[in-house]
């Protein structure tokens, strides 16, 4: 199991970001996204549907309020696209389709997912009913391909890989960040685009 529990630190330590055009999908308040600047990317963009637009003094770094199911960039713009802890809240198929579109051929995609263990561990903390609903929503998603957006849901690797393959994205490696018993809490997929 990997000791780095923050996916951003893991990416920083394991991938060459220098002179790359990077997009962080669902960047939140972008505190984590900004870590990538240390590696001097050519361009760093974060998008999130709940955060305001922001531009840093340097032209090569900006944050845009936008829905990741419709990314406001032309195709083949980015060398690296990251999507960290966002899948519980979005239409995964539409988001992966958009990520595939804006990533260059041979570009890298890094996706962090919530395993079923994430919600199992939550049951034993404060949010019992909510966690049970999230697990049920995840099961409905995996069995019937229906996802109720108002409730979060876990992801199984096989399902995500199937969608990735549909959009010509090949999975190279899985990194597990945390486990709860035998269940994955957080795992990351390192993928390459073959258009
Ligand atoms: C758990 S936070 C993760 C933030 C960041 N990736 C991190 O790990 O620090 C999930 C983020 O996804 C964003 N999000 C949810 N649905 C979205 C959508 N349809 N388009 C863009 N961002 C979305 C939320 O606003 C939230 O900031």
> CATH superfamily name?
Vaccinia Virus protein VP39
Largest sheet: 8 strands, mixed
| Uncertain residue ranges | none
Cα-based radius of gyration, to the nearest Å: 16 Å
Shape, please?
A: globular
The oligomeric status of these chains comes to single chain
CATH topology: Rossmann fold
Bound molecules: S-adenosylmethionine
Strand-residue proportion: 25-35%
Q: What's the structural domain tally?
A: 1
Quote the distance from N terminus to C terminus: 32 Å
Number of DSSP strands?
8
Structural class: alpha/beta
Helix content: 25-40%
- Please give the CATH architecture: 3-Layer(aba) Sandwich
Relevant terms:
8-stranded mixed beta sheet, 8 strands, 5 helices, binds S-adenosylmethionine, 195 residues, 28% helix, single chain, Rossmann fold, alpha/beta
Structure description:
This protein is of the alpha/beta class. The protein has a single domain (7-115, 155-193), classed as Vaccinia Virus protein VP39 (Rossmann fold). It is built from five helices and eight strands; from the N terminus they run αβββββαβαααββ. The chain has an eight-stranded mixed β-sheet with strand order 3-4-2-1-5-6-8-7. Strand 7 (169-180) and strand 8 form a beta hairpin. The protein starts with 6 loop residues before the first helix and ends with a strand.
Short account of what is shown:
By secondary structure, the chain is α/β, with parallel strands linked by helices. Helix content is 28%, strand content 31%.
């Amino acid at each position: 199991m990997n000791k780095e529990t923050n996916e951003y630190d893991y990416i920083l330590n394991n991938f060459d970001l220098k002179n790359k055009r990077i997009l962080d999908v669902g960047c939140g308040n972008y505190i984590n996204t900004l870590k990538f600047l240390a590696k001097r990317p050519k361009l760093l963009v974060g998008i999130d549907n709940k955060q305001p637009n922001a531009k840093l003094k340097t032209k090569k770094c900006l944050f845009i309020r936008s829905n990741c199911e419709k990314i406001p960039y032309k195709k083949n713009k980015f060398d690296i696209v990251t999507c960290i802890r966002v899948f519980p809240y979005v239409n995964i198929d539409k988001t992966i389709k958009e990520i595939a579109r804006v990533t260059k051929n041979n570009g890298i995609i890094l996706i962090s997912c919530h395993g079923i263990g994430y919600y199992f561990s939550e049951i034993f903390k404060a949010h019992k009913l909510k966690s049970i609903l999230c697990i049920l929503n995840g099961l409905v998603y995996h069995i019937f391909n229906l996802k109720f957006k108002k409730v979060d849901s876990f992801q199984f690797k096989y399902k995500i890989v199937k969608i990735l393959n549909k959009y010509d994205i090949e999975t190279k490696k899985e990194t597990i960040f945390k486990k709860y018993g035998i269940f994955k809490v957080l795992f990351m997929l390192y993928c390459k685009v073959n258009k």
